[in-house]
Amino acid sequence: MPVGPGEVEWLHPTTALGLVWDPSMAEVPSFGSIVQELMERALRGPLPPGAQGAILSALASDVEVVHHCGLSPGRLPVLVENNPTVATEVLLRLVASPVMGDYLTALVRMDLSLHSMEVVSRLTTQVELPPEFVHAFIANCIVSCENVSDRYMQNRLVRLVCVFLQNLIQNKIFNVHDLFTEVQSFCIEFSRIREAAGLFRLLKTLE
């Protein structure tokens, strides 16, 4: 019978219908996948306190999770800039790993910043880092200051580097005599800056 205007046509499907079960429904995410997701968020931007606490707890609870969190030496600079505390904790758990050297190289090669110095400073207070890494990082600090063309930004970076170097010297993180000439020349070059003059005076007490 034809369907008239305003009437509803009943459908009678000829294809047999069956139920399809999705095995992923109600599946609980694995611990590793949760950490990887948190790491991806940490690489995209600063984590809120709750998420940062979650990833730090995960790193502390399982010594193997750091090897499966999705971080690589090439991605370390981004993590350092976005979440320096997380970066520090990751590196602390990689100290005994064969890949630690690659991560330290990435630290030396990345653009110098407050956060990169913060990460290195925290590391030096908790573990003994290879002297060649410390020397290379300090050399990069000096060169980075010299290469900044903007006077305001240069002055700011020099101040940060001077405070960083003073902390390393006072905590006896490295033998200052190994880089005495380089650091002294740096202080003289930027003697117009108060922190550089203070670092120079500290060097003189160690001669």
TrEMBL record:
Protein location: Cytoplasm; Nucleus
Main location: cytoplasm
Example of a GO biological process term: regulatory ncRNA-mediated gene silencing
Keyword Cytoplasm on entry: yes
GO CC terms in record: CCR4-NOT complex; cytoplasm; nucleus
Family: Belongs to the CNOT11 family.
Protein name: CCR4-NOT transcription complex subunit 11
UniProt organism field: Porphyra umbilicalis
